[in-house]
Amino acid sequence: MSLLSDTLARVKPSPTIAVTTKAAELRAAGRDVIGLGAGEPDFDTPDNIKQAGIAAIEAGKTKYTAPDGIPELKAAICEKFARENGLSYTHDQVSVASGGKQILYNALMATLNPGDEVVIPAPYWVSYPDMVLLAGGTPVIAETALENGFKLTADQLEAAITDKTKWLIFNSPSNPTGAGYDRAALKALTDVLMRHPHVHVMTDDMYEHLAYDDFEFCTPAQVEPGLYDRTLTCNGVSKAYAMTGWRIGYAAGPKPLIAAMRKIQSQSTSNPCTISQWAAVEALTGPQDFLAENVTLFSGRRDLVVRMLNAAEGVTCPNPEGAFYVYPSIAGLIGKTSAGGTVIADDEAFATALLEETGVAVVFGAAFGLSPNFRVSYATSEAQLEEACRRIQSFCAGMT
């Protein structure tokens, strides 16, 4: 009898974490490595949020709380949804967990039975399919295209839905592409969903506040109120508030689903870190002016990276609407040989050779379900980004 569960064989470790770990190992060994794999802001948590955490410690707010969040944080989340998204929720429609990943995992564990299908547009965040598999469901991958800005079309969604479909996982702005759906594009998708009342929607709005130029963020239940009772609207403080390590994610949705998620969390992790919860209250209710400043900063980095990658031989890099990623195509490099002698058979070979020969760490596209591409996180300094892009340009120019 094997010690390990058969279910474990259905999933794989996170490729993004693997790339970050490999870059750290090379850096520790003395290599000059520029890591463009990590999906987290490079600036610190704002001081008012840190002080709220410190104040919680000093006030002795370090005991167990309700399994899925303190009332004060649930109130702040309800206010946020009303203020920013025009969505009205009560406390018993809100769940708080140790990061956005746990929110999604709890929801899938609470709802999926063997044979249930979950539609996932590709490219996708690496964890979506594996969480579906862990929960016993079947991922149904709907591939998007660079030519359409990596956005799922209404026809593609319609074709992916069957009588076994339980969820659509929807992420905008997207990790890994930065693609954002405007109201018209999202309305086309919600019109499809309204024709299929057995399909529920799990939104991942983690990059809501990282939207550029004239792109205006919107979320499915906001665009189509008829989906309100079928939507779990998920978000968190990790990206916008530079609180990745604080581990606070949240969601709002139908009461029965939230109650089921609460049950799972009560028998797994129990409450999220109390100190982090109080810091998240301050994040959501305190000053928000720095968000616009960060958008300006990230927008400039995006423009630099898109311009320099499009100048690289064999690379095509679309201009994303949000998040802090680009997802360039290397279709023009497949079959070529790097200066170091590596045949670029696919995007994994490209990323491996790029790291070994230039010290630039990126994540290969197959990890996100769509090739031949690679993901760059531009959540680092312009100086680092400029140097990394110069190395990528040189690497591509040296191929034969």
Structural commentary:
The chain has 400 residues and is of the alpha/beta class. The chain has two domains: 147 residues, Aspartate Aminotransferase, domain 1 (Alpha-Beta Complex), CATH 3.90.1150; 223 residues, Aspartate Aminotransferase, domain 2. Helix content is 40%, strand content 12%. The chain is built from 13 helices and twelve strands. It has a seven-stranded mixed beta sheet, sandwiched between helices. β3, α5 and β4 form a beta-alpha-beta unit. α2 packs across α10, α3 packs parallel to α10 and α4 packs across α9. The chain is globular and about 60 Å long.
For the structure shown, list the relevant keywords.
single chain, 400 residues, alpha/beta, Aspartate Aminotransferase, domain 1, Aspartate Aminotransferase, domain 2, 7-stranded mixed sheet, 3-stranded antiparallel sheet, 13 helices, 12 strands, transferase, EC 2.6.1.-
Topology:
Blueprint: H1 15-28, E1 34-35, H2 47-58, H3 71-85, E2 94-97, H4 100-111, E3 117-122, H5 127-134, E4 138-143, H6 154-160, E5 165-171, H7 183-194, E6 200-204, H8 220-223, E7 231-236, E8 249-252, H9 255-266, H10 274-285, H11 289-310, E9 325-326, H12 347-358, E10 360-361, E11 363-364, E12 374-377, H13 382-397
Parallel strand pairs: 1-10, 3-4, 3-5, 5-6, 6-7
Antiparallel strand pairs: 2-8, 7-8, 9-12, 11-12
Helix pairs in contact: 2-10, 3-10, 4-5, 4-9, 11-13
